[in-house]
Amino acid sequence: MNKFYGTGVALVTPFNENGSVDYQGLKKLIDFQIDGGVNYLVSLGTTGETATLTKEEKKDIWDFTSETVAGRVPIVAGIGGNNTTEIIDAIKGFDSAGFDAVLSVSPYYNKPTQEGIYQHYKAIAEASELPVILYNVPGRTGSNMTSQTTLRLAHDFDNIIAIKEAAGNFEQFSEILRDKPEDFLFISGDDPVTLPLIAMGAAGIISVVGNALPKVLSDMVNLCLDGKFAEARQAHFDLLEITRLCFVEGNPAGVKAALQQREICKNFVRLPLVPASDQTSQLIAKELVKFL
Predict the structure, then answer these.
(1) Choosing from 108, 118, 121, 135, which is the catalytic residue?
(2) Which residues catalyse the reaction (predicted)?
(3) Is 23 a catalytic residue?
(4) pLDDT tens digits along 81-122
(5) What is the per-residue pLDDT for 2?
(6) Could you tell me the residue range of the domain that residue 183 belongs to?
(7) Of residues 58, 164, 180, 256, which has the active-site annotation?
(8) 206 assigned ligand-binding residue
(9) How many domains are contained in the chain?
(10) Among 111, 48, 41, CA closest to 72
(11) Is the pLDDT confidence value at 1 over 80?
């Protein structure tokens, strides 16, 4: 589980203008992250526009990512959804070579009860050969996984090793951090609250803005984990505006605009997403200059 301390980055999926996957851009992105000092990568989380990818594309991206990383950092595969049986089938059919864990988002759209969420993750934990990281993001799923459900799962299943938490509720965060098993990791799922959450005991961040600024973010996280919060504070403040801009027209449109400015990959997205507007892209470009 030490593999998942520090900075994780939820990789975007670069696309070509015709909508195909841009593997040259993906290689450049992966190398950029590793050179920037990130501790691990998440392949095909929400930021990877996974909902728009076919099963064949997902397999090809996972294979390419594993081959490109070549053991340099741990990799987490995003395998989630709102059809439990389909997720279990995907996990059982997943070639886990080169991967270190599965990140699975709490079921969206269906709005299950807390017991339904528990049973969903129970089935996943029992099916997965890899450790499982829970992911709570009510702003996208339409339902919150409560601290009680998270703690129940954390105590009941040894292979549920962490949660990526993005509920935006510090009371909920505090309850999980207070009552979790000692070796269960709490990972921030929201860039702007990384510093205060590490101060409370979080293990780090799975970041979006880290796609564009891996070194700035990982340096800040490392300072926080070393207890050097006064030194980390300025980077925390510096990142607030670029992070806001990356989300103002949706994720990953904003961070892809930033990546285009950094000449890592183009800003193409798949419908129903559209690229960030010219105005927002110009503001992102202006803000990026401060870090270069």
Answers:
(1) 135
(2) 135, 164
(3) no
(4) 999 999 999 999 999 999 999 999 999 999 999 999 999 999
(5) 86
(6) 2-227
(7) 164
(8) yes
(9) 1
(10) 41
(11) no
> Which residues are paired to 292 by β-bridges?
none
Helix (H) or strand (E) holding 58, with range, is helix 55-69
CB distance 42 to 247 below 8 Å: no
Instruction: Establish whether 87 is an annotated binding residue.
Output: no
Q: What is the pTM of this model?
A: 0.97
Helices 278-288 and 229-247 pack at an angle, to 10 degrees, of 160
**Is residue 118 annotated as part of the catalytic site, yes or no?**
no
31-47, pLDDT tens digit by residue? 999 999 999 999 999 99
Q: Is residue 183 part of a domain?
A: yes
In a domain, residue 255? The reply is no
Which domain CATH number covers 138? Answer: 3.20.20.70
Residue 37 lies in a domain: yes
Taking only the tens place, the pLDDT of each residue in 48-87 is 999 999 999 999 999 999 999 999 999 999 999 999 999 9
Q: What percent of the chain has pLDDT over 70?
A: 100
- Asked if the structure places residue 283 within a domain, the reply is no
Q: Which two tokens stand for residue 28?
A: 């450049």
DSSP 109-168: SS---HHHHHHHHHHHHHH-SS-EEEEE-HHHHSS---HHHHHHHHHH-TTEEEEEE---
Contact 39, 218 (CB under 8 A): yes
